[in-house]
Amino acid sequence: MTPSPGGDAVNWETVVGLEVHVQLLTRTKMFCGCSARFGDPPNTNVCPVCLGLPGALPVPNEQAVRLAVRAAHALGCAVHGRSSFARKNYFYPDLPKGYQISQFDAPLATGGALAFLSAERGPVTVRLKRLHLEEDAGKSFHDRVPGKTAVDFNRSGVPLIEIVSEPDLRSPAEARAYLTVLKQVLGPGYLAVSNCNMEEGSLRVDANLSIRPAGSAELRTRTEVKNLNSFSGVERALTAERERQIAAAGRGAAIEQRTMTFDETSGEVRPIRSKEEARDYRYFPEPDIPPLALTDAWLAKEQQALPELPAAKRERFETRYRLSAAESAVVTATAAIGDYYEGLAAATDDSGKETWNWVANDLLSLSPDGESIPLPVARAAEVVGLAKAGKLSRQAAKRVLPELAAHPGDSALTAAERLGLLQVSDAGVIEGWVRETLASHAAEVARYQAGETKLMGFLVGQVMKRSAGRADPKAVTAALAAALAT
Amino acid sequence: MTDFRKAARDAAARIAACEAKGTHAFLAWSEQSLLAQADALAAAPSAARGSLAGEAVAVKDVIADATFPTTCGSRILEGWRSPFEATAVRRLREAGALVAGKTVCDEFAMGSSTEWSAFGPSHNPVDPSRVPGGSSGGSAAAVAAGAVAMALGSETGGSVRQPAAFCGVVGIKPTYGRVSRYGLVAFGSSLDQIGTLGRDVAGAARLLAAISGRDDRDATTLDRVPLGEPGPAATTLAGTVIGVPREYFPKGLHAGVAAAARQALERLKGLGAEVRDVSLSHTKYAVPTYYIVAPAEASSNLARYDGVRYGLRDGDASDVRAMYRATRGKGFGPEVRRRILLGTYVLSAGYYDAYYGKAQRVREAIRADFARVFASGVHALFTPTTPTPAFKFGENLADPLAMYLSDVFVCTANLAWVPALSLPIGRDEGLPVGGQLIGPMEGERTIIRIAQALESVTDATAEVR
């Protein structure tokens, strides 16, 4: 073993691997017909199967298998034609059968990778160990009834996939970046196999962290951090755990293999279980469910049905629309935004750069969630058309867009007229505004005529102001130049 | 149309008579329920024309039914009323049967005598000083006592055939997956199967026909059309090859049992069957294999009885671990506790491969033994059902191993998933002796046909020569 570099953080490298649980967006639960909806009144979506009543049996949900396979394909995993379920046995009040149906030695998928951009290391590819299907447990509430624990079984039996990464992450920030990309791929923006909402628990993370002397390739004793409820929580918890381990190493203390919990309020990590207390889950093959057999043809069909994923879309946009990587990322945040971008570029006959400005600077701000733009592409194209034709200034266009989103039945022209934002290029009207402006700015006119020509910009601005932004700036400049020359 | 109320009253009278004699076959039954079902049946045209219209059928207490409690013979589920009924029970009702009541069994079907019932054992109607066998002892006793003509039992390792043999009735254990397990309270899920008991082969077969078939609620059911009703008994078995596995006739086999089996084989030959010696070389490993696989699965299946949601709760609920211990310690009887401990042990980290892993491999070998014999032209196997006739109360209670060995000839079919049945083939010193027919996977029709022919030339109440 390399000699200890002490308690100085710069001498240590952080090694992180993540186990991510993702709730699948199925209508019904993994092994019964109960609704899998989040947020219903407690214990209303339950039946003999998900309550583990005597004699009830699980029957796998095909849609859950399909969504898990879709996720596995998107992450480049090898999906196995034959996998099987196993029982993970432990006692807990919110685990109604006394075991969780999961997968153990024959998971649905193994391998795979997820690439993301690390602020520290540039493009990073994280290898994946496995992706398997399992059912969720119920939810315990320790604060609803004084002195008692209340259990809601609505979540019991909701389908989950667990995605286990190799320890390829090197910092808390990288862990967060990895999760952000994972959410982008699996969440509503692309595959829509899950809501991937950490606050609602549809994406949950357990993180394994160890430290090693910088430059070393060894894997040292790791701890597992649980109870991570937000992306920022992951980063904060791992930072705290890294600091705890480095401090311990600095004191010459050994890192013990244990499970830690993160306290969101205090920002501290605390041990909850040592290795000696580690549970023996007594896995064995689930006898109630025959092995899952997926044909090559079905798997191939699912693979083909996969949408274009963020990384591929980003690269294609960079080439096709000559966007930078950063620009491309903005308009490929979700598949819907990507489609919008491409639709608007086509509708306005644009090579892409100008469209990027419209989408990134004007249209995305209309989106309440950053997932899609609530305005038909054709309406946006009308606005772009008016601007190009000089009938609408960019500033005015920015005001027309939300008006159109609120009244999608209107044409862009109607909305602009109603707001009085249509640009005026009538020479007579503009000359009138110019005359009035010059009359009230005699001093500036004199300075201009004395050679201070940079005042032209100021005077154009004053005319625009007088026109309440409606004057065509080109026509104003021309009219001013003519008036001042005389 | 049948007078269903009369059928219900007659059934109630027969059950009352059976229980008045002290048989204690039933944990719950009522004339009122029988009459209510009869009235419902009269109003339901399709069920009233069903294959079991108006016939009373008793149901083992490990099978969920929405009328009576489903206690599994355990304190931990005392008074438990299932909010749903088993698919097999639903199919009984659809076929027009009247559910007569719930029968005594060993706790969670773990036992071979009903002595492990938390609510008292059943008595063998042939000799009340003897056990009826188990775990479906109450169902076998109910049929033997004439309380009902048919009953549902369940098997994990011979729990229908062994009591059928002890009580002198017919018991069928179908192919794994033939009957839905939905609503059968799980013991060893990869072995469990609902079976049927009847006064004769046709009765047990008719009951099986009514409950068999694919069920969307049980992913392990076979996707096959339900079994049909049995035909009339064949008068010849010419062309049928019956294998006699030597491992089932060990040295020192009970003389009466051996004699009865020999006599039955003579009768099969007399019917024109070819009888052939065969070997199933892994038979000797069946009991140890069974006592690893079944307890392992049971330790997991019985984890749900934790006092949190239903059933017994004991101890201070503010300490959940203490509550689990108190509830399970008090709610489970000694045999169930023994098997949970055994099963937990064999699944533990570091022991899995040596026990459960190895048992699964031996199980494959046992299955391969059967497959090989049936591929060699043998249509069915004939063996004694049990090594001895019914034993006396208390005889094996202190010696679990002796109790386990009463299932030595029956647990192989559960491990191999093949169908098997037991029919009475004579009596030894007044006690019934059972003969077992084992068929290949999905070979129920074959063993039922052979059993019907053998039954037609057998006086099962006669002493063996």
Overall description:
The complex is a heterodimer of chains A (486) and B (465). Chain A is built from 15 helices and 17 strands. With 486 residues, chain A is an alpha+beta fold. In chain A, a hairpin with a 4-residue loop joins strand 14 (258-263) and strand 15. The N and C termini of chain A lie far apart (88 Å). Helices cover 37% and strands 14% of the residues of chain B. Chain B has 15 helices and eleven strands. Chain B has an eleven-stranded mixed beta sheet with strand order 1-3-2-4-6-5-10-11-9-7-8, with helices on both faces. In chain B, helix 4 links the parallel strand 2 and strand 3. In chain B, helix 1 (4-20) runs antiparallel to helix 2 (31-42) and helix 9 crosses helix 11 (334-346). The longest helix of chain B is centred in the last third of the chain and has 23 residues, at 353-375. The model of chain B has no long low-confidence stretch (mean pLDDT 96). The chains are: A alpha+beta (486), B alpha/beta (465). The interface between A and B is large, with 31 and 46 residues.
Tally the beta strands of chain B.
11
Structural domain count of chain A: 3
Major β-sheet annotation of chain B: 11 strands, mixed
Q: Radius of gyration of chain B from the CA trace? A: 21 Å
Arithmetic mean of pLDDT of chain B: 96
Radius of gyration of chain A: 30 Å
From the spread of the alpha carbons, the general shape of chain A counts as elongated
Output the number of helix runs of chain B.
15
What fraction of residues of chain A sit in β-strands? 15-25%
Cα shape of chain B: globular
Oligomer: heterodimer
Let me know the average pLDDT of chain A. 93
Which regions of chain A have little confidence, pLDDT < 50, spanning 5+ residues? none
Provide the helix percentage of chain A: 25-40%
DSSP strand content of chain B: 5-15%
According to DSSP, the number of beta strands of chain A is: 17
Q: Helix tally of chain A?
A: 15
